[in-house]
Amino acid sequence: MIATVFNNIICLGFAKITPILAAAAGGGGDQGGGTPHLPNIFSILHDFGLLPDSVYHFTHEWINVIYGIFTSIILCFVAARIYAHRKMIPGKAQNLVEMLVESMYNFIYSILGEDAKKYTPFLGTLFFYILINNFWGIIPLGHSPSTNINITASLAIMVFLYAQYTGIRRLGIVGYLDHMAGQPRSAVTWVMVIILFPIHVIGEFAKPFSLAVRLYGNITGEDTLVAAFV
Question: What confidence tier does 173 reach under pLDDT thresholds 50, 70, 90?
Fold first, then answer.
């Protein structure tokens, strides 16, 4: 669950950089001409006079981070409770969680082989964190943090940094640079380094941008369509 906590720390830093979307407007509205969203719990409470303006303005500004933290709390609570009450003969809740974890492990194992055990905690947490964040948009009174580019960018940057750290740790600095250069072993491949190295560097920096925009675009489009139909 360290990944979810780390992500929320990054989200707090990015939440002020490029606010693309406003939060949810009261009455399922249009957010002052912005992207439409279904109303969330805070806008409903504000509409009924149960939430002071000052509190509402705060939740309106930090709505994506708030729901991202909700997701972290849910994941941490479920994991801690299931682990604390685990039994040799699992109950329904433990059986469900074990099935999800085992399915995730088997999927990662099919790609990474024996390294799956090492990377399943990070990749599995990332998968379920994003999945629940996406589901918030279609849950009544929820709001999907994935409809904000700052949230998806923070996730993409975290994955980018983790991938580079893993590559350097496994290959070493020299091995990592050798990989980025295309592993030249002949005169021709050494000449191609001039082309391959910049391409690989640009490709690595393009991945987080692509990941951030793709997730943001998919979920924003989905939530916008749902709100428009409603």
Answer: very high
